[in-house]
Amino acid sequence: MIEFRDVSYSVDGIQVLSDLTLRVAHGEILVLLGRSGSGKTTTLKLVNRLVTPTSGQVLVNGKANDQVDVIQLRRGIGYVIQEAGLFPHFTVERNIGLVPKIEGWPEERVRARVQEMLQLVGLTPDLASRYPHQLSGGQRQRVGVARALAADPAILLMDEPFGALDPLTRDELQREFLLLQQRVHKTVVFVTHDLREALRLASRISLMEAGKLVTVLTPQEFLKSSDPWASAYVHAFGDGLESAANRGTS
Amino acid sequence: MNLLRFFVQNHTQVLDLTGEHLRLVGWSTFFAMLIGIPLGILIAHRTQLGRPVLTAANIIQTIPGIALFGFLLPVPWLGESAERLAILALTLYALLPIIRNTYDGIRGVDAAVVEAGRGMGLTESQLLFQVELPLALSVIISGVRIAVVISVGLATIAAFIGAGGLGEFIFRGVAMVDNRVILAGAIPAAILALLADFGIGWIEKQLRPR
Lengths: 250, 210
Prior knowledge:
Chain A is α/β, with parallel strands linked by helices.
């Protein structure tokens, strides 16, 4: 589905990413775990070409992603970022319906799709006419997910989507996201620095450090791993992680 | 009360000159927007051009008004019509606030929002017209407002080269040492500036993103 082949990226002489080789399987949630500056967000942006590799190749659906039209590539990939990145001057309806609309869907179909998406992410239809600043943080993030799914992309990129939420709302959205994924079966690349979140959501966890991929493990394997970086993470997050890893391989 | 009588007696001339004044300000603001807004957008995206363009606009701003009119007077096609010349000079002065505010407005749009749009597959022109410009609009309009208020004041100097406007009264009044005549130009000019400030300020407020 997505494949990184020997990808390196440097900017202004600084090596941000070195020799990344990684495959993301169809329908899995691959979590990129690492601290700030580890290169996880850069890795994510390589997929939709917000970042162009210095060397190496990124394949999306079996094709090198620099061989396809960048606009079409991006419209086929949902993108959710922290604080949702909603357009503040658009209503919820226009935010969610944006990609379908610029893809030329008839107005009626866009409207129906928006309603469908609102329901999918657990929002009531009356929110459609609100502006982002009139929503709670959790609602905004749901709209962000709805917007990313609106044109029914096969791939979903999520960059710390739940990072700015309070713990209770975050927990709720994580749980709902897993349920949602069971229905939509997207191929998801998910960036976080929160191990608990990674264990809970991931099919596999890719641990990154200083621009390098350290290891790729299932949540179960991650907890038992003898890898020094992985165990450092487990130690830093302390007890009670076992219960968080509720999925294992899938 | 003398002043009021002067206004009543000369009301047609006051209205005519106010009209001329508005024409000078209107056309020059129009041209300055036509040039300044695209230029501001350009330098907001190609920031290496930002400094030279803004510096050039700044330098123009430092040329004293009467000197600029004087410089432009011998230019062939321009010098033929005083109004043409006045409009050009006023356009040059109006550029800086418009370029500056367009640049600031676009640069001030939340980078995360722009990147989200780009990541969703908006083309650069869709990003500009649907995201950046709407979000920068109130800042751009505020630049236009500053430009208009400056122009209303500056346009009084246009009378110096015979381009008309309310400056006619002011120059005449100075020559005649008659305060009534000076005020007949200065008061309507001040009112115009205040109205423009207030009116465009109102528009700006309506356009401010929530």
